[in-house]
């Protein structure tokens, strides 16, 4: 059972209320595909991913970025039991999409970088720590159904 | 994942741009690492204050960034130029090299915070590769 302090709960809600989902989702996913190009293996049907500019302007990447962040919002709304909330998503990623779970950390890192870029100094070290813990729980929950 | 000519050019140009702020960013990155990844605090148990505002943290962060800036200028021979620092980390400090990746992430995050427009995905990948190569050079003497 993950224990959240009041500060951590409030901080996560606050960060997600401040970021623009339509910008952050696509930016995080495209940054991941550019910085860690081997992650492109999961997006064979997305068309042109050959150059950074193509990835950033790819409408399928943008649309999927929004799907990913909508999925994260589910965790934000159910912080007390992310593990159960993500059970189906975990099965999806392990059995259907067959994503190497180490990649979840890569995307999580890119998301953190994008959020920091958006929020600037408002992304305080303490807020950053809470965000880091939240993403660690999300990643662990997504890994849960792999075997 | 070795550095291409393009990576080196990108890293040097970007570091030139950000050099006025590197000392401050170094302190910020180290402070964040100690806060967001508390297991890293074990290497600094001899300091009295490990908060992001601590003078010790800020000073040491600046030292680290200074060494990184120096490595940028010697980007063609990271292993050679980091040889002494590698000995220090391997034999005296004995920092688990996994932590180099954690600090690199925090440095990247702070670069994105301070320079959101300049730290594009293209710059990010070159800087990430550079820091990874730097970490490798720093681990050279471990075993």
Automatic annotation (TrEMBL), chain A:
It comes from the Eukaryota. Keywords: Heme, Iron, Metal-binding, Oxygen transport, Transport. Residues 3-147 form the Globin domain. The keyword Transport applies. InterPro entries: Globin, Globin-like_sf, Globin/Proto, Hemoglobin_b, Hemoglobin_oxygen_transport. The keyword Heme applies. Pfam families: Globin. Belongs to the globin family. This is Globin domain-containing protein.
Automatic annotation (TrEMBL), chain B:
It holds the Pfam family Globin. Residues 2-143 form the Globin domain. It comes from the Eukaryota. Gene3D superfamilies: Globins. InterPro entries: Globin, Globin-like_sf, Globin/Proto, Hemoglobin_a-typ, Hemoglobin_oxygen_transport. The keyword Transmembrane does not apply. The keyword Iron applies. Keywords: Heme, Iron, Metal-binding, Oxygen transport, Transport. PROSITE patterns: GLOBIN. Heterotetramer of two alpha chains and two beta chains. Involved in oxygen transport from gills to the various peripheral tissues. Belongs to the globin family. PANTHER family: ALPHA GLOBIN-LIKE-RELATED (PTHR11442:SF93), HEMOGLOBIN FAMILY MEMBER (PTHR11442). This is Globin domain-containing protein. The lineage of its organism: Eukaryota, Metazoa, Chordata, Craniata, Vertebrata.
């Amino acid at each position: 059972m993950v224990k959240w302090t009041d500060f951590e709960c409030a901080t996560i809600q606050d960060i997600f209320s401040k970021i623009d989902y339509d910008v952050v989702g696509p930016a995080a996913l495209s940054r991941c595909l550019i910085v860690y190009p081997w992650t492109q293996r999961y997006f064979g049907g997305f068309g042109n991913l050959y150059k950074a500019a193509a990835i950033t302007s790819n409408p399928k990447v943008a649309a999927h970025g929004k799907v990913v962040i909508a999925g994260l919002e589910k965790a934000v709304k159910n912080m007390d039991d992310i593990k159960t909330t993500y059970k189906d998503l975990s099965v999806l990623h392990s059995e259907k999409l067959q994503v190497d779970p180490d990649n979840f950390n890569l995307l999580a890192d890119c998301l953190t970088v994008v959020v920091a870029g958006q929020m600037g100094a408002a992304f305080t070290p303490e807020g950053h720590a809470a965000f880091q813990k939240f993403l660690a729980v999300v990643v662990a929950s997504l890994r849960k159904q792999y075997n | 994942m070795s550095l291409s000519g393009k990576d080196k050019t990108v890293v040097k140009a970007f570091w030139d741009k950000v050099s006025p702020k590197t000392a401050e960013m170094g302190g910020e990155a180290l402070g964040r690492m100690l806060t967001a990844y508390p297991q890293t605090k074990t290497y600094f148990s001899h300091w009295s204050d490990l908060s992001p505002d601590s003078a010790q943290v800020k000073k040491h962060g600046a030292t680290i960034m200074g060494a990184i800036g120096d490595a940028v200028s010697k980007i063609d021979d990271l292993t050679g130029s980091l040889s002494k620092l590698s000995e220090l980390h391997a034999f005296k400090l004995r920092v688990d090299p996994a932590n180099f990746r954690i600090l690199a992430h925090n440095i990247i995050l702070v670069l994105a915070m301070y320079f959101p427009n300049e730290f594009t995905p293209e710059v990010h990948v070159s800087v990430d590769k550079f820091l990874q190569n730097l970490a490798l050079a720093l681990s050279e003497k471990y075993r």
